[in-house]
């Protein structure tokens, strides 16, 4: 049997999702949201939901990390048809980059206009405090890999995609505006994506700060690259769950990350409640 191409696999996943969601979302979702560690509850406010376990979607894997549920939720989020991914795949789990970004590609294949990526991150910037939020302005890909490595699939996007606005300025502006209206302080900063699964050493954190990182984490960068390749604009939000290694006398634990991300999730939820309807992009008349 000939192995299906990534494009064919995406089509199969998209068709299966559409079959599950039936007539509920005939136009498809307008916004996609990938929920990071401990941030899954953001999807709780969606109504008229259809929940699809990843195990029911062709070519999706289960997830193995605590705080990552492994299901897709399609629903109405304060008036906007939205698809949430509760649980993501990480490179450190041993997945190939193509598997890490498969859910992103499937969600983009549903026809979303904006992808909101959320994550838990360690604060490298010394002004950041646990449970602060950071709007991602740009990233450093320090994962040592790229989801677009290998033959390019022209059906998905160009061989050499531009990343000079990997995180849409317009989306950043909307998120910042919403945070300001709600009087929720937020930072704007650079997210460094690392392989993990170890947390960093204090010396590494000093190096990442010198390189221009404000926060570090083990996700988001692959999804941002895959969405940009597909021409879908990205908004990124980090919840600073801990001070990065060497900045606090405490040792880092996943438990601390989960606890603080739950605190940050409440603020993130309020911002997204206001921002999601404003992130629906209406192409200009006569546009594509
Ligand atoms: N380092 C890397 N990834 C993380 C951290 C951290 O300190 N906190 C949450 N995700």
Report on this structure:
It is a single chain. The chain is α/β, with parallel strands linked by helices and 288 residues long. It has one domain: Rossmann fold (3-Layer(aba) Sandwich). It has 7 helices and 9 strands. A 5-stranded mixed beta barrel has the order 5-8-7-6-9. Strand 6 (132-142), helix 4 and strand 7 (186-194) form a beta-alpha-beta unit. Residues 284-288 have low confidence and may be disordered. Bound molecules: hypoxanthine. Residues 120-122, 199-200, 216-218, 241-242, 244, 252, 257 line the site of hypoxanthine.
Question: Descriptors for this entry?
Answer:
9 strands; alpha/beta; globular; binds hypoxanthine
Concise summary:
The protein is α/β, with parallel strands linked by helices and 288 residues long. The protein is built from 7 helices and 9 strands.
Number of separate strands: 9
Q: Can you summarize the main beta sheet?
A: 5 strands, mixed, barrel
Strand content: 15-25%
Shape: globular
Provide the low-confidence segments as ranges: 284-288
The average pLDDT value, as a whole number, equals 91
Task: Assign the CATH class.
Answer: Alpha Beta
Secondary-structure element pattern, one letter each? HEEEEHHEEHEHEHEH
Helix proportion:
25-40%
The oligomerization state is single chain
* Name given to the CATH architecture: 3-Layer(aba) Sandwich
Distance between the termini: 37 Å
The helix-and-strand class reads alpha/beta
Topology:
Layout: H1 6-21, E1 31-35, E2 47-53, E3 71-77, E4 80-86, H2 97-100, H3 102-109, E5 114-123, E6 132-142, H4 169-181, E7 186-194, H5 202-211, E8 215-217, H6 221-229, E9 233-243, H7 254-275
Parallel strand pairs: 1-4, 1-5, 5-9, 6-7, 7-8
Antiparallel strand pairs: 2-3, 3-4, 5-8, 6-9
Helix pairs in contact: 1-3, 4-7
The structure holds hypoxanthine (HPA).
């Amino acid at each position: 049997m000939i192995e299906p191409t990534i494009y064919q696999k995406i089509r199969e996943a998209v068709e299966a999702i559409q079959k599950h969601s039936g007539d509920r979302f005939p136009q498809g979702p307008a916004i996609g949201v990938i929920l990071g560690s401990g941030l899954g509850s953001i999807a709780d406010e969606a109504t008229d939901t259809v929940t699809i376990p990843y195990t029911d979607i062709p070519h999706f894997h289960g997830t193995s990390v605590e705080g990552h549920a492994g299901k897709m939720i399609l629903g109405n989020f304060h008036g906007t048809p939205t698809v949430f991914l509760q649980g993501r795949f990480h490179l450190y789990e041993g997945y190939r980059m193509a598997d890490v970004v498969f859910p992103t590609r499937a969600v983009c294949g549903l026809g979303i206009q904006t992808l909101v990526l959320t994550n838990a991150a360690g604060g490298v910037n010394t002004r950041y405090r646990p449970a602060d939020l950071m709007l991602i302005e740009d990233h450093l890909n320090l994962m040592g890999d790229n989801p677009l490595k290998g033959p390019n699939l022209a059906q998905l996007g160009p061989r050499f995609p531009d990343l000079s606005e990997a995180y849409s300025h317009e989306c950043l502006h909307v998120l910042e505006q919403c945070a300001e209206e709600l009087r929720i302080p937020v930072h704007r900063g650079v997210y460094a994506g690392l392989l993990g699964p170890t947390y960093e050493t204090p010396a590494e954190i000093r190096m990442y700060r010198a390189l221009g990182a404000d926060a570090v984490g083990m996700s988001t960068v692959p999804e941002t690259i895959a969405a940009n390749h597909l021409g879908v604009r990205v908004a990124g939000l980090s919840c600073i769950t801990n001070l990065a290694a060497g900045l606090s006398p405490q040792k880092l634990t996943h438990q601390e990350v989960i606890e603080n991300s739950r605190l940050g999730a409440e603020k993130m939820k309020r911002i997204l409640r206001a921002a999601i309807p404003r992130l629906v992009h209406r192409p200009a008349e006569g546009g594509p």
